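Table S2 (text version). Query chain:
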Amino acid sequence: MNSNSPSANSADTYSHRLADVVGTAIALLTLTLPVFVIAHYSSSNVQNNQQPPIQNLRESQN
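Corresponding structure-token output:
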């Protein structure tokens, strides 16, 4: 081993940390984004599509 050669540890550490941060961000988006999308669309559809069944029965009897 040559003690005068520069070490590559600093570049490796930076790239590993960057990969860890990017990987963590992708994982968090993958886990949380579908939950928010499902919650957003399911709550708006439930409120808009509900009709009371009594109204339908009165209209069919007339």
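Notes on Table S2: The chain has a mean pLDDT of 76. The helical segments are 9-49, 53-61.
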